[in-house]
Amino acid sequence: MGALPRDAVVREWAMPESVPVRCPACRRAHRYTAPSYPCPCGAPVAPPLDPDAVPVPVGHRAWREEWVAVRCGRCGRDGEWPRPELGCPCGTVLRIPVAGPRTAAPAAPAGRPAFRSVPVRPARDAVTAAVLYLRRLGHEDVRRADRRLPAGIGLTGPGVLALVDPSARPATPRDVECLWLTAMTESVRCLYFSLAGYAEDARARADALDVPLFLLGPAGVPRPVNGPAEALDADAA
Question: Can you list the domains of the chain with their CATH numbers?
Answer without folding.
Answer: 10-95 (no CATH), 123-236 (3.40.1350)
